[in-house]
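Review form for a predicted model. The reviewer records the input and the model, then writes brief findings.
Reviewer: anonymous (R2)
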Amino acid sequence: MAKFDIKDGFWRLEQPIRLVVPASLQMGWIESPPFFCAAPETGREVAEAEDYVETKIGSRPEHKFEQYAVGGEDYEKLPPQKDGDLKYLLEVYEDDFISLAIPTSQEQLDHVARGVYKGSTTFSPENDDNALDPIALKK
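Model under review:
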């Protein structure tokens, strides 16, 4: 299981960034605006779609943050490649992307991680500077 947090996700919806006086409730207040909740949900749907996780295993390019989603003792116990059914579930809660995978190989787990990373950046594009990237590394 992995959780990917979109750093300052609420504020990344408008480009370029502008100083605004909020006309609606903000994150952390009583309720989140519906348009913010819809943006990450759309990213989850895109990650699950045919263009990302549902593509052929091994067809997604490596992602610069992949090292944070794969590795560890359980990962090393998986065979590098093996045919078998990949079972996974992707969910989103506010600006958190949550993936649960039951892979039969390291390649399958890598593939899910790459699809989630790509899908999570559909509403907030990746940045070449890791410190400015929408995926929060500190959470």
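Findings: Residues 10 and 28 are 10 Å apart (CA to CA).
Further findings: The chain is about 25% helix and 15% strand.
Recommendation: see findings above.
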